[in-house]
Amino acid sequence: MTCADRRDLGLLLLRLSTGGVLAAHGTQKLLGWFGGHGIESTGRFMESVGYRPGRAAATAAGLAEAGGGTLLALGLATPAAGAAAAGAMTGAAAVHAPQGFFVHDGGYEFAAVLGLAATGLAVAGPGRLSLDHALGHALNRGWMVPVALGATAAVTSVVVGLRARRLRREATGEQEALFDVDEIDDLADIPEEESPSGR
After folding, report:
1. pLDDT tens, position by position, for the chain (199 residues)?
2. CA distances (Å), 72 to each of 90, 173, 176, in order?
3. CA 103 from chain center: how many Å?
4. d(CA 71, CA 79)
């Protein structure tokens, strides 16, 4: 087996494993397959972690994972597929980041590995054992790599940034007092006959 053959086989295995896992996760979100919760429950979860509107966010994440994963496994439109999957994993990593790195603590380890693998495939290409190769790399041109990754990075930065700002605002709102203490003291000093409840 030549070095080229080994490289192509390695890329095939990496594509099938990374793409398969991503596709399974995406169908959990979109269709409730593999023990997933489907689009409605996933949408409510997205809302709860700051991605709004939740259903739209769940649909976008599910399509990026299922679509990007399937295309990676097939080795078709590899730059766009890898970029889409990497963007979805960046969004997931942002949710898990407060728990640290390791997945056993709820961290972003798993999302980071999948995202980096998808990015690596987008950059390296799918190899000869792929639909891209069979189609003459019509959807796998060199210029497509920076365009796909750059566009995804821009969109992901906006989405994750808006989520972070939304969560900061909500955290600030939660820290505000529910009642003004001075206002409560003023009400306590009102004689009973003057107070609204003393009628």
Report:
1. 788 799 999 999 999 999 999 999 999 999 999 999 999 999 999 999 999 999 999 999 999 999 999 999 999 999 999 999 999 999 999 999 999 999 999 999 999 999 999 999 999 999 999 999 999 999 999 999 999 999 999 999 999 999 999 999 988 875 444 444 444 455 455 454 544 444 4
2. 17, 42, 47
3. 16
4. 10
Largest Cα–Cα distance in the chain? 97
* Distance between CA atoms of residues 125 and 140, nearest Å: 7
Task: Confirm whether pTM is higher than 0.90.
Answer: no
Encode the chain in three state secondary structure: CCHHHHHHHHHHHHHHHHHHHHHHHHHHHHHCCCCCCHHHHHHHHHHHCCCCCHHHHHHHHHHHHHHHHHHHHHCCCHHHHHHHHHHHHHHHHHHHHHHCCCHHHCCCHHHHHHHHHHHHHHHHCCCCCCHHHHCCCCCCCCCHHHHHHHHHHHHHHHHHHHHHHHHHHHHHHHHCCCCCHHHHHHHHHCCCCCCHHHC
The Cβ of residue 195 has, within 10 Å, a number of other Cβ atoms equal to: 12
- Tokens for 178? 């529910």
Q: Are 26 and 63 in contact, with CB atoms under 8 Å apart?
A: yes
